[in-house]
Amino acid sequence: MTKLTSRIFSSPRHTTRYWECGPDNGPLMIFVHGWPEIGLMWRAQLDAFAAEGWRCIAPDMRGYGGSSVPTSSGAFTLSEIVHDMVELHDHLGARPAIWVGHDWGSPVIGTLAAHHGHRSRGVVLVSVPYFPEGFALPNLVPLIDRQLYPADQYPVGQWDYYRFYLTHFEQTVSDFEADIPAALASLYGPGNPASGGLVSPSALITKNGGRYGAAHRAPTTQPNPALWLPADFEALAKAFRASGFRPANSWYLNDSANIAYAQVAPDGGRLHQPVLFVNGDWDAICDINRSRLGEPMHGACQDLSVANLPAGHWLPLERKSELVQAIRSWLEAKGL
């Protein structure tokens, strides 16, 4: 195991806690987590690439873990979050990096690559594809599979959870915070190969009155040690006990600002770097093979590769070594 070290970087506007391993002079690879994660979720990939000579960095993002936790929902726009990553990248020496993102981390690194192309040698998007017009509900709804999600029954399809955060924000935060360890454990589960072609539970949140229905709290659930190491899950739960879910959920509240930011990206947000998208075959929300979700990415990426892995949405945790191999093969193929 490569030694993983926690560090703190502060600027006048923000503090980022990040995890680092690998040689200081190695090529730079930065791993950006999403909702509801922390930098430690990349442990397996950090260990693997650090052992191969990469300098690996995994920040806790704004509102998470040991990083700054603003109180205003407007502080969680992609422009602010990308600014955090620009400052961190400068602190690390600003050598062009390979950026790897999962869930909300994918829109972060895709947006960074669009606005600050010189900072990226390559981009790895895991689970969530790139949307050059902005990762925002108005841009997702037109791409829904309407055979699976008829508009009269499922107006926002599998993105109903996203709309519920917008329309029932306080309830969503309260429901998650009623039992934080159980909520986190209930969210993290392996993909189900039998789920293909079935309506996602995420499409039923409004119908059920919330993710946990009338109970308004997660059922008692034990964390899956095959996904999170027990010590890392405890660190995750400790982080959310400190910050709650309000900051993490606030990332969903800035569609208009995020669309406006996307509209001022150079060249219409087209990505000229090599891009790898790693798709989860059993991802009930983001799988690009059963919907049109991948179409904007295909149109906006000059050099796009796609890898498919048998996994659900939590792909970096569920397919740890397979993700490493997919990234490694792509790096070799592209001479990166």
Descriptive account of the structure:
The longest helix has 15 residues, at about 320-335. With about 325 residues, the protein is α/β, with parallel strands linked by helices. α1 packs across α13 (about 320-335), α2 packs across α3 and α5 (about 160-165) packs across α6 (about 170-175). It starts with a strand and ends with a helix. The protein contains 13 helices and eight strands. It has one domain: Alpha/Beta hydrolase fold, catalytic domain (Rossmann fold, 3-Layer(aba) Sandwich). It has an eight-stranded mixed beta sheet with strand order 1-2-4-3-5-6-7-8, sandwiched between helices. β5, α3 and β6 form a beta-alpha-beta unit. The protein has helices at about 45-50, 80-90, 105-115, 135-140, 160-165, 170-175, 180-185, 230-245, 245-250, 255-265, 295-300, 315-320, 320-335, and strands at about 5-10, 15-20, 30, 55-60, 95-100, 120-125, 270-280, 300-310.
